[in-house]
C-alpha cells in the first residue's frame, strides 16, 4: 500500500506557513492563534476523511479512522504540532503529517475494499511537547501517562506568570477558524481527570520523527530505527552576588554573578566533555541576568541546566557533579547559589518486538538504515512505559534541528513515512 507522497509533502509545506516568525523558522507555541490555525488545517483533513475527533482537557487530539470498530485494540501514530522559538519546519509536525498520510491512505484503501484491518487506527497529536510555554517537555503526554495531574496545572507557569490552568481556561478567547465544523479545542472546565489514557485499549504506539542529530546524515543512511531514548534532568540555578558600579568597584572586591556563572558553566562543560563514552550532554540553554546593564556589575543570574544520557546513573552522577561545581564556585567567589530541580524524564528502552520486526522489514526492503539512540526526548517516551512503542527517524541534513535551517531530503521524508505505513499495516493485521 503506497502513501501519496505529494499529499504528504503538500501538507508539510502548508503547515510550515503557520508560524509567527515568517522567514525566520517556525514558531508555533501550543494554545496560541497559530496553534489554532494548524489544528484547524489538520481537523479539516480528518473531517474530509470521515474521521472522528476527540480532544482532551490538555488539548491533545485523537483522530479515529471512520472504519474503526468500537472495542478493537488501537494502533496509535502521531507526534506534536508545537515548536520551539524560531524552530524548524519538521520537528513534530513531520510525525503528525506522516500519521495523517497513513490515515488518508487507509481510508481510501478500506473504502475500495482492498484492505480489511483487524485493529483500530488513530492519529494522536500531542500538545505542548517542546516546553516552549512552561519549560517542561512532553507536558501533554505526561498528562496522558498520568505523570502530571491537578498539581501541575497550578505549578507550571509560562514566562508571564500564567499557570497552565489559566492558559487552558483562556482558550475560549482564541477564535475558531470559520471553515472548521469540528471543535479546535476542548473549552469546557479545566478538568484533567479524564485525560490519562486507558492503556489496556492500546496495542501499539508509533512515532515518526526527524533525527535532529548528525548520525544518519554523516553515515549516508536514509532511516533510523530507535531503540533507546535519552532521559534528562533539568535544574535551575540562581546565583546572587552584589550589584555595584562597573567603574568604581576594584576587581578584587566584586561578587559578579555572571563571572561566577561563566566559570561554573565552563568547568561543567569540560567535566562532561571528558566522559569516557562521549555520550552524556550538558546544556545551559536559558539565562537571565539582572540588572543587565553595561555599567552595573551583574547581581543575579538565573539559568537552566539540562543533563542528558541514555544511562540514568550517568544523568544523576553528572547532575550532582555540576551542582557541586556551582556550589563551590559560588562559595569561593562569595555568592549565594540556590538550586531548584525543575523537571526530569528517565531513559527509555523502546519495544524490543517492534525494533526486531522493523529491522527485519527494513532489511527486506533493502533500506539503508541503522538501529540507534535518540538524544532528543519524544512523546513516545511517555507511552513506552505502558504499551509497545516504536520510533522511526528520517535523517536531518547537517544534523541541524530546533533552528530555522532544520531540513531533510524529500526522498527521505517520503521513504520513512512509507516505512511508517508498512509498520502500521503489520500492526493492524
Ligand atoms: C525535545 O525536543 C527535546 O528533546 O528537548
Ligand atoms: Mn519533536
Ligand atoms: Mn523539538
Per DSSP, what share of the residues sits in E-state strands of 2 or more residues?
15-25%
Order of helices and strands: HHEEEHEHHHEHEEHEEEHEEHEHEH
CATH class of the largest domain: Alpha Beta
The tally of helices reads 12
Shape: globular
Class of secondary structure makeup: alpha/beta
Bound molecules: glyoxylic acid, manganese (II) ion
Proportion of residues in helical segments: 25-40%
Oligomer: single chain
Give a description of the structure.
The chain has 429 residues and is α/β, with parallel strands linked by helices. It folds into two domains: 5-230 and 348-428, Zn peptidases (Aminopeptidase); 231-345, 2-Layer Sandwich (Alpha-Beta Plaits). Helix content is 34%, strand content 21%. The chain contains twelve helices and 14 strands. It has helices at 5-16, 33-48, 93-112, 139-144, 150-155, 164-169, 215-218, 257-273, 312-333, 352-364, 380-384, 410-428; strands at 52-55, 61-64, 74-80, 120-126, 202-210, 223-229, 231-240, 281-283, 287-290, 300-309, 336-345, 348-349, 369-374, 388-394. The strands form two sheets. Strands 1, 2, 3, 4, 5, 6, 12, 13 and 14 form a nine-stranded mixed β-sheet that branches. Strands 7, 8, 9, 10 and 11 form a five-stranded antiparallel β-sheet that branches. α1 packs antiparallel against α3 and α8 runs antiparallel to α9. It starts with a helix and ends with a helix. The mean pLDDT is 96. The structure holds glyoxylic acid and manganese (II) ion (MN) (2 copies).
Short summary of the structure?
34% of the residues lie in helices and 21% in strands. It is an alpha/beta fold and 429 residues long. The chain folds into 2 domains: 5-230 and 348-428, Zn peptidases (Aminopeptidase); 231-345, Alpha-Beta Plaits, CATH 3.30.70.360.
Amino acid at each position: 500500500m503506497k502513501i501519496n507522497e505529494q499529499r504528504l509533502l503538500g501538507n508539510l509545506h502548508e503547515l510550515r506557513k503557520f508560524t509567527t516568525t515568517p522567514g525566520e523558522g517556525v514558531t508555533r507555541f501550543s494554545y496560541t492563534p497559530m496553534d489554532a490555525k494548524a489544528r484547524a488545517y489538520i481537523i479539516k483533513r480528518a473531517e474530509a476523511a470521515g474521521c472522528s475527533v476527540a480532544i482532551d482537557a490538555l488539548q491533545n487530539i485523537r483522530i479515529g479512522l471512520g472504519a474503526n470498530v468500537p472495542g478493537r485494540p488501537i494502533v496509535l501514530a502521531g507526534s506534536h504540532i508545537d515548536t520551539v522559538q524560531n524552530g524548524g519546519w519538521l520537528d513534530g509536525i513531520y510525525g503528525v503529517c506522516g500519521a495523517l498520510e497513513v490515515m488518508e491512505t487507509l481510508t481510501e484503501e478500506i473504502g475500495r475494499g482492498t484492505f480489511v484491518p483487524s485493529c483500530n487506527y488513530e492519529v494522536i497529536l500531542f500538545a505542548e511537547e517542546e516546553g516552549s510555554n512552561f519549560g517542561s517537555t512532553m507536558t501533554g503526554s505526561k498528562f496522558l501517562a498520568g505523570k502530571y495531574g491537578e498539581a501541575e496545572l497550578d505549578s507550571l507557569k509560562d514566562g508571564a506568570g500564567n499557570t497552565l490552568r489559566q492558559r487552558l481556561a483562556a482558550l475560549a478567547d482564541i477564535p475558531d477558524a470559520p471553515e472548521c465544523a469540528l471543535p479546535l479545542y476542548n473549552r469546557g472546565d479545566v478538568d484533567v481527570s479524564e485525560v490519562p489514557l486507558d492503556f489496556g485499549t492500546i496495542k501499539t504506539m508509533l512515532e515518526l520523527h526527524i533525527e535532529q542529530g548528525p548520525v544518519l546524515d554523516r553515515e549516508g543512511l536514509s532511516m533510523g530505527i530507535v531503540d533507546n531514548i535519552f532521559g534528562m534532568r533539568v535544574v535551575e540555578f540562581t546565583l546572587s552576588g552584589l550589584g555595584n558600579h562597573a567603574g568604581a568597584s576594584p576587581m578584587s572586591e566584586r561578587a559578579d554573578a555572571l563571572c561566577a556563572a561563566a566559570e561554573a558553566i565552563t568547568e561543567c562543560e569540560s567535566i562532561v566533555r571528558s566522559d569516557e563514552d562521549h555520550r552524556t550532554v550538558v546544556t545551559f540553554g536559558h539565562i537571565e541576568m539582572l540588572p543587565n546593564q553595561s555599567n552595573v556589575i551583574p547581581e543575579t543570574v538565573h539559568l537552566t541546566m539540562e543533563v542528558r544520557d541514555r544511562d540514568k546513573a550517568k544523568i544523576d552522577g553528572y547532575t550532582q557533579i555540576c551542582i557541586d561545581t556551582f556550589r563551590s564556585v559560588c562559595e569561593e567567589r562569595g555568592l549565594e547559589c540556590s538550586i531548584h530541580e525543575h523537571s526530569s524524564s528517565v531513559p527509555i528502552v523502546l519495544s524490543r518486538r517492534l525494533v526486531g520486526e522493523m529491522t527485519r522489514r527494513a532489511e527486506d526492503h533493502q533500506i539503508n538504515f541503522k538501529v540507534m539512540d535518540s538524544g532528543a526526548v519524544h512523546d513516545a517516551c511517555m507511552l513506552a512505559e505502558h504499551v509497545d512503542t516504536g520510533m522511526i527517524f528520517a535523517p536531518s541534513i547537517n544534523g541541524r534541528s530546533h533552528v530555522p535551517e532544520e531540513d531533510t531530503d524529500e526522498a527521505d521524508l517520503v521513504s520513512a513515512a512509507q516505512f511508517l505505513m508498512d509498520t502500521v499495516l503489520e500492526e493492524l493485521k
